[in-house]
C-alpha cells in the first residue's frame, strides 16, 4: 500500500553553536495523517518543527513539504502551512476576533475572505461567544483554541502544532484532541510535537520517538507497542537482597522471555500471562521470597521509550502536567 507523501525529511541535522540539536533525522509524513514527534524536553522536536516551517535553516540535510524545499522554496512553503507555536503569543488587550483580523492582514487575505473565514474559524474552535472579549482574559484552553484558529486562518494543507496541550487541564486537552482530529478529517495533514505519552498514543496515527536529536523508532502506536515483544510483569521484592536469586529462578521458566533486574525487583517480559504469572508466583513461593507489589500490563508507549533509551520519558516530564 503506497500513500501520498506530504513531507519528506532527509538526513536533517542542526547544530546550534556547539549543541547538536538534530542529528541525521529522516522520516516521511503521509498526506492526511496526524504525525507526532514524541520525546522529552530538549530532544530536538521544536528544532525539527522550526526547520519544516522555514524559520530555521538546517545545518545539513533537507526537508520538503509537498515537494517544496524548506530553504529554497521557503516563500511557497509558507503559503502551504499553518503553525501554532509552543509559546503562545496571546496576552494582549486584543479580542480573539481582533487577533484573527490582524493575522488576516499579515497573510494578505482580502476583506471579503477575512469576513467569511474569521467567523467560520471562531465557530470551529467554539469561541464565538467569547470572540469579543480581550484574549488575555481567556483560560489556557481557550487561548490554545485561539492559537489553533490562528494557525488555520491561511487555510493550510499542513498544520504544525508545537506541544498543543502543554500545561492544559484534562478536559481542555480532550477538546483540543477533538479539534485536531476534526482537522485531519477535513483533509489537513497535521504534524505535532508532544512529550505526553497518552497524547501520542491516542491522537497520533504514527509517531517518531526522538531522543538526543535522533529518531529512536517510528511507527503507529500499536506497531511500536507490539514491537516491545510480550506483556510486562513487574515485581517488587520485600527483601532487596533476594532480587538476584529470584531473577535466576524466573529466567529459566518457559513462559518467560526476558528478565531485567531493578534494585528493588524485576521487570519480566512474558509470552502468555496465564502461564507465566502462576509459574512466577510459584517460584517466588518456593524461594520464600516475599513480594510487596505485582503489576501486570500490556506494553505502553513508555515501555517503548524505555526499550529504546533505557529510561522513562516521565523522568524528565515537566512539572506543569495537570494529570
Ligand atoms: N536557539 C538555540 N540556541 C542554542 N541551543 C538551542 C537553541 N534552541 C534549542 N537549543 C538546544 O537544542 C536542543 C533541542 O532543543 P529543542 O528543539 O527546543 O527541543 P524540544 O522541543 O524537544 O524540547 C536542546 O539542547 C536545546 O537546549
Ligand atoms: Mg519544544
Topology:
Layout: E1 5-16, E2 19-30, E3 34-38, H1 45-52, E4 60-65, E5 68-69, H2 74-80, E6 81-84, H3 96-106, H4 111-124, H5 140-152, E7 158-162, H6 170-185, E8 189-194, H7 197-203, E9 206-211, E10 214-219, H8 221-228, E11 231-237, H9 243-251, E12 256-262, E13 265-270, H10 273-286, E14 291-297, H11 301-309
Parallel strand pairs: 3-8, 3-9, 6-7, 7-8
Antiparallel strand pairs: 1-2, 1-4, 4-5, 9-10, 11-13, 11-14, 12-13
Helix pairs in contact: 3-4, 5-6, 8-11
The small molecules bound here are: adenosine-5'-diphosphate, magnesium ion
Tell me the Rg in angstroms. 24 Å
Largest sheet features: 6 strands, mixed
Envelope shape: elongated
What brief labels describe this structure?
Rossmann fold, 323 residues, binds magnesium ion, 14 strands, elongated, binds adenosine-5'-diphosphate, Alpha-Beta Plaits, six-stranded mixed beta sheet, disordered C terminus, alpha/beta, 36% helix, 2 domains, four-stranded antiparallel beta sheet, single chain
Describe this structure in words.
With 323 residues, the protein is α/β, with parallel strands linked by helices. The protein has two domains: 5-224, Rossmann fold; 230-298, Alpha-Beta Plaits (2-Layer Sandwich), CATH 3.30.70. 36% of the residues lie in helices and 28% in strands. It contains eleven helices and 14 strands. The chain has helices spanning 45-52, 74-80, 96-106, 111-124, 140-152, 170-185, 197-203, 221-228, 243-251, 273-286, 301-309; strands at 5-16, 19-30, 34-38, 60-65, 68-69, 81-84, 158-162, 189-194, 206-211, 214-219, 231-237, 256-262, 265-270, 291-297. The strands form three sheets. The chain has a six-stranded mixed beta sheet with strand order 6-7-8-3-9-10, with helices on both faces. Strands 2-1-4-5 form a four-stranded antiparallel beta sheet, covered by helices on one side. A four-stranded antiparallel beta sheet has the order 12-13-11-14, covered by helices on one side. The longest helix is centred in the middle third of the chain and has 16 residues, at 170-185. It is elongated and about 80 Å long. Residues 319-323 have low confidence and may be disordered. The structure holds adenosine-5'-diphosphate and magnesium ion. The site of adenosine-5'-diphosphate (ADP) has 12 residues, from strand 2 and helix 1. Adenosine-5'-diphosphate (ADP) binds at residues 16-17, 19, 21, 39, 41-47.
